[in-house]
Amino acid sequence: MGEIRLRQTGSIVADRKGSVTGHAITNLQERTTLFVSPNDEVYAGMIVGENPRAEDMDVNICKEKKLTNVRAAASDDTVRLTPPKKLSLEQALEYIAEDECVEITPKIVRLRKTVLDSGERARNLKKIKQEKT
Q1: DSSP state of 16
Q2: Is the pTM of this model over 0.70?
Q3: Quick one: pLDDT at residue 131?
Q4: How many of the other CB atoms lie within 10 Å of CB of 96?
Q5: Cα distance between residue 52 and residue 11, in whole Å
Q6: Which three-class secondary structure state does DSSP give residue 13?
Q7: What's the pLDDT at 4?
Q8: What is the pLDDT of residue 64?
Q9: Alpha carbon of 89 to those of 4, 75, 93: distances in Å?
Q10: Which pLDDT score is estimated for 1?
Q11: Which of 125, 124, 93 is nearest to 111 (CA)?
Q12: DSSP letters of 64-110?
């Protein structure tokens, strides 16, 4: 009973379609909690993690490491990836915000934004802020 608590964190949203790379996860795992692991397929507008700040963040989770002929002695160190947080259906339904939805397939439960295009999401957010003032 009482007021429904809203989530205080934002979402990490994929900005393009592709396969998740370990290189991209390495850069994000220190600042966020991720819901995907390397080689998972993602699409633009899919929620791939949780941002500790209140706003959403669009990221390139498919970024690959640039391969060059020049190698330093310690440049290819082994990187430890933290295991992703896998959400059950109940956890996913609890987690989503009002502009997000849960996508269920026989093999996986995914989170996504209701509006997949990041430009259109930004315009909608700006319009909502203008209406409040």
Answers
A1: S
A2: yes
A3: 87
A4: 19
A5: 8
A6: strand
A7: 66
A8: 87
A9: 19, 40, 6
A10: 64
A11: 93
A12: PPPP-S---TTTT---PPPPP-PPPHHHHHHH--TTEEEEE-SS-EE
SS3 124: helix
Tell me the C-alpha distance between 60 and 19, whole Å: 10
User: Looking at residue 14, what is its pLDDT?
Assistant: 94
Count other C-beta atoms under 10 Å from residue 45's C-beta.
Answer: 21
The encoded tokens of residue 117 equal 């295009």
Angstrom distance (rounded) from CA 117 to CA 133: 25
> If you classify domain 10-65+78-132 with CATH, what class do you get?
mainly beta
Consecutive 10-residue runs of the chain (133 residues): their mean pLDDT? Answer: 75 93 88 91 93 90 81 65 89 89 92 90 87 81
Exposure letters 3-41 (e unless 16+ CB within 10 A, then b) = eeeeeebbbbbbbeebebbeebbeebbeebebbbeeebe
Residue 63's identity, in one-letter code, is K
